[in-house]
Structures are given as structure tokens and as C-alpha cells.
Amino acid sequence: MCGIVGYTGPKQAAPILLEGLSKLEYRGYDSAGIAVRDKDKEPVILKAKGRLKMLAEKTNNGEAVPGNCGIGHTRWATHGEPSELNAHPHKSDDLCVVGVHNGIIESYIEIKEKLIRKGYSFQTQTDTETLIKYVDYYYKKYKMGPIDAIAKTMVRIRGSYAVALMFKDYPGEIYVARKESPMIIGVGEDESYIASDVPAILNYTRQVYYIDNMEMARLSGGEVTFYNLNGDVVEKELKEITWDAEAAEKGGYEHFMIKEIHEQPRAIKDTIGSLVNTDTKRINLESIGITEDEVKNINRIHVVACGSAYHAGVVGQYVMEDFARIPVRVELASEFRYRKPILCKGDLVIVVSQSGETADTLAALREAKSQGIKTLAIVNVVGSSIAREADNVFYTLAGPEIAVATTKAYSTQIVAFYLLAAEFGRIRTEITELQYQAYVNEILTIPAKVESILDDKEQMQRLAAILSAQDDIFFLGRGIDYAVCLEGSLKLKEISYIHSEAYAAGELKHGTISLIDKGTPVIAVLTQNSLYEKSVSNIVEVKSRGAYVCGVTYYGSYSLEGTVDQMTYIPKIDDHFAASLSVIPLQLISYYVSLARGLDVDKPRNLAKSVTVE
Length: 614
Ligand code: F6R
Description:
Layout lengths: L2 E6 L4 H12 L6 E7 L6 E6 L2 H7 L10 E7 L14 E2 L5 E9 L2 H10 L9 H15 L4 H9 L4 E9 L5 E7 L4 E5 L2 E5 L11 E4 L4 E6 L2 E5 L5 E2 L4 E2 L15 H7 L1 H10 L2 E2 L4 E2 L8 H5 L3 E6 L1 H18 L3 E5 H4 L10 E7 L5 H12 L3 E6 L5 H5 L2 E4 L12 H20 L5 H22 L3 H10 L4 E6 L2 H17 L2 E6 L16 E6 L5 H12 L4 E7 L11 E5 L8 H18 L18
Parallel strand pairs: 18-19, 18-20, 20-21, 21-22, 23-24, 23-25, 25-26, 26-27
Antiparallel strand pairs: 1-4, 1-10, 2-3, 2-4, 5-6, 6-7, 7-8, 8-12, 9-10, 9-11, 11-15, 12-13, 13-14, 16-17
Helix pairs in contact: 3-4, 4-5, 7-13, 7-14, 9-13, 9-16, 13-14, 14-18, 15-18, 16-18
Bound molecules: fructose -6-phosphate (F6R).
Fructose -6-phosphate binds next to α9 and α16.
């Protein structure tokens, strides 16, 4: 996970590298470093443990480091503790090769042993140092050029990587290679950039190349040449990024997370608008390339994803099964990929991912494809690996999501499922035309209803103040409410570090109720009319054991006043779409609890935004 940037051109490199890294800190933030070359002098390597600001202070925001060509890295430790020594860039002993790396070199121990036998020694605990020295070894042994030395290394290592290298003999040049870890190359006038993600270079250019798996590139000023593993030149098309740079900034909010929570009405509206014609109020699957015949022939759907994207799939399962009457199985990608899934003709595998780079989800997608099964990706980042490899893509239009805890991407993912469910249901005549129209109309009301919840968030601040002092918090719900509880609980534990569990309310008495004691906080979600009374019984059960209960339900549903300790009301909507509204108070509660505990909301400990290692 880690972020990489690079620059070569007429400008001073270090300030550009530091600014770029600041946009990538969400990918890792335990240490950072840069290597910069001033003309044909040796590269200067500067590193610091901790947040990027430590490196910025050390280098006066990069101003103190001369040179027009450099690479930078912000780290999320995999091999070797977070320390200045293990921070990137790493180098061969004579500075012949200097490099940064994102990903994991799985075969690094055997390579290291081989290199030690050849006389190399190692200073760090990282797999990256092994990679750099392996390139150095081939470069020197066969006196080959950088591209040949990198290619020779690539075919001999196992793992995933995006790597950027500078060679002492090639001033002003950066060499990159990629296998399964994200990397883009931007081009400006007489200059070029590399980055793990778009926001890092948006201030400088919108013209980018996507480097493919097992490809390399040489950057020299504004010239970028791509190569395959045989060293043949590969032609590539320059693409334009249409994102607004503003969208990747905090825009006056204290944190990215609260900004992104507030962007949800817009993100949901855009995602709905990408498939629904707002005049005819009809859903059109043309943009995702799925035909009516294909929909009619689906036998089973497998939804595969990780974390919150998996939780979005759980919501999707309830709605798709109800509307389209197709059996849906939702599975964690890390389980799916290794359990030899039984997939049959007529199955559709839907992978869900914000980043489009999650290693397990990508592997699950590949597993499905290798079995000849049709795949659809619900994905946010355009041009990401998952987007490029899936047969069909439904882009959620959440825009760049920077806070580690997802909010707007999750909200657009569940809306994507509603649209698929309604359209699949219509095509398969499992819902009537009247129901279809009613559902589409309800979906169109979601953005305004989310907005109205956001306008009224003070209550969540008060509740968060109470909850922030707790050690354990439980979430209870049934059906779609349970699916939302899974997400609410993950959100809370992830950014507040409070232990939390989500339970299907009916499951409580099979063990977990023994944990309920005087004052134990329980957040209960009750939006499903057909399950309301059942859930109320469960609430009474925990209440009578002393729980402090906070309920989330619709306006007008006031029967729990007097039974529970706090109620939060959301606008009424068809029950199938309630998750879009009930998740908002849960996101806000997590945000304010994290704030009340004085934590780093956007960059919680031990986490990174994009999980490109398994
Ligand atoms: C939680 C969160 C994670 C991600 C998960 C999958 O707030 O963001 O659980 O949902 O790591 O990431 P993507 O969607 O990028 O595949």
C-alpha cells in the first residue's frame, strides 16, 4: 500500500514530490522519503519516520533540496518496522540504482540469499532493498541497459509491485515497472510525473498514461517510452483526467471524512444519473454493457468484495433477491479466492471496490474470469486494475475518496445495487411496471433525503459525546438494518478504536446477550416494517438487561420513545432503500466519536486507503 511519486523536467523536483506525497498519505503514513538528483550528481536521499510533515520540516518543504529529477515514497510498512532505515528510497551500496516500491516481493528471501552468495549485503529489513539490489546485480553483471535489467528482474521475482528507479549513469531519467500495483504517468511540457494515484499530480497535469501489468517505462523530460518484457516499445494512448482538483482537497472542512460525508447527496445523484434518464425515469444498462438477454439468463449472482464494499454487497443481496428473485451469495474476496468457488454457466460475479486495486478483490475477479464466468465491477476509480480487467464496469461517481474510512463510495455502491436490482427485476418480470416506476421514483428521492439528515447532525454530536467514553458498542438490526449495522460497526471501530460488533438482532440470544450489562451501549436500527416488532422485542430484551439503547428509525415511528434512551429519526423511504438513509447517522456518530477522542479521523492507525496487498 504506500504511495509513489516521481518528477523529471525543468522544475525543482523536491517540492513537487512532497506535494504529491501529501495527496498520497492516505495510502500509508508511517515514514516517507525522497531521492533527488541535481544534474549528473549522485542522488541525495532524505527520509523521515512518521508523518510526511517530518520530512517536509527536514527539507523546508523540499525547497532545500536542489535537483530536477526525483522519486518519493510514503510508506505503510509490510516488511520491516516503520523506521527511517526501512523508509524508501532504497539503494544499491554505490548508489548505482535507487528506487521506491509499492507492493510486496513474495520471493524476496530466496533472492536475498542468492544475492548474499554473490557478495551483496543488506542494511534494511525490507523486500524493496532486495528488489533494488537484484536490478543492480543484472545491470552490472550483464552490462545491460536499465530496461533490460528491470525486465530480467521482473521475470524472476514473484509478487506485486509498482517500482520507480533512478540509475546513476542516466541522469534526468526515471524508470518504472508495474505488476498489479497501481501507477499512472502524467505528462506536461518537457516534464513527466509518476504517481500511485491521480490526486498526486492533478495540480500539474491532466494528461496521463496508464501503464499496464508487466510493462516498463522510461521517463526523460516530457518524453515517455513504454516497453514490454521483451524490451519492445509499446504504443499508448494519452488519456485526460476529468476530475476537478478541488474535489481532491478538503474545501474548508476540517477532515476529508466529514467533507466526503457531505458530498454524498451529490455522489448518489451523479451515480443515479449515470443510469437513470430523469425525464423518462427509466434505468438504462447500456453504459455498463449488459443486455436484456444476459439479464434474463442469469442463474445466480456472486457478490465479492472486502470491508465496506462487502457490506454494500450485503445490502445489495437483500434488494436484488427481493426485486429480481435471483439467488445472490455475498462473499469476502479473501475467502472466495482461496476456496475453489463453484461457479456455473449463467452465473454473474459482481466485484465491488472503491479503489479498484484491492488485491483480494482483484484476485477474486481473476478467479471468476479464469473459470469463464461473466464479471461486472462496481468500481469508483476509473482506469483502476479492477475496472480494466472486468468484462463490464458500473462506475460509481463518488469522485476521489481520500479519508481512509469510506462513506460516499459505500453510499454510491448501494445505490448501484438498487439500480441493478430494479432493472433486473423489471427485465425478468419479477416486479410489475408500476412497482418499477415506484422504485425508481423512490431512488430519485435519496439525495434530498440524505441532505436533510446532514442538515440535522447536532443530535449525532451529542450522542457521540456520550459514546466516546465507552469501551464496547453493539449494533443491532434485522434484514437490511443488519447489513447497515455491519457498516456502522466497522466505521466506528476503524476510526474510534472502540470495540464494536454488529449482530443480527435475532442472533443475540444465541450467545452475545451475555455481554449486555448495565450501561452497555446498543445502537438499534429499525427501518424494516415487516421486522419492526421482532426488532422491538430484541431491544426490550437488551434494555431489560440495563443496555443504553439508541434507536434509528423513520419519522412518524414514535412507539419506542420512552423505551429507549435516545432516538434518531430519518425521512421515510421504501424499506428497500432505507440503508442509504440509516447509514448517515452511523457515519456521523463514528466521525464525532473519533473527533471527541482526539484521534486522527482521516488516517486511523494501522490502516491505509488502498489495500493492494493481501
Ligand atoms: C472501511 C473501508 C474498507 C474498504 C475495503 C475495500 O471504511 O474503507 O473496509 O471498503 O478495504 O476497499 P475497496 O473498496 O477499495 O476495494
